[in-house]
Write a structure and sequence with these properties.
It comes from Candidatus Competibacter denitrificans Run_A_D11. With about 80 residues, this protein is mostly helical. It is built from three helices and no strands.
Length: about 80
C-alpha cells in the first residue's frame, strides 16, 4: 500500500478521485482495499480540516435558512 501524506491541492484531488471510486464499490472492511480506503479517508479529512475549514453559520441566518427550507412564512412563525 503506497500512500503518502496530502500536501498540495494536486495530492488532494488525486486522493479524492481514488476515494470516489471506492464509494461506488465500497471495499470489505479489513481487506487491503478496505484498509486503503480508510487511510485515504483519514488523510483527506485531515487535509480538509487544516486547509478547508468550514465556519459555523450565524445562528440567526441558520434559523432563517431552515425556516425557508420547511416553507415557514413570517406569519406562520407566530
Amino acid at each position: 500500500m503506497k500512500i503518502h501524506s496530502i500536501f498540495t491541492q494536486e495530492d488532494y484531488r488525486t486522493a479524492l478521485r481514488e476515494v470516489s471510486e471506492f464509494f461506488d464499490h465500497e471495499p470489505e472492511p479489513g481487506s487491503p482495499d478496505g484498509d486503503r480506503f480508510e487511510v485515504l479517508l483519514a488523510l483527506v479529512e485531515a487535509y480538509e480540516t487544516q486547509h478547508l475549514p468550514i465556519e459555523l453559520p450565524d445562528p440567526v441566518m441558520a434559523n432563517q435558512f431552515r425556516m425557508e427550507q420547511i416553507s415557514l412564512t413570517p406569519k406562520a412563525r407566530r
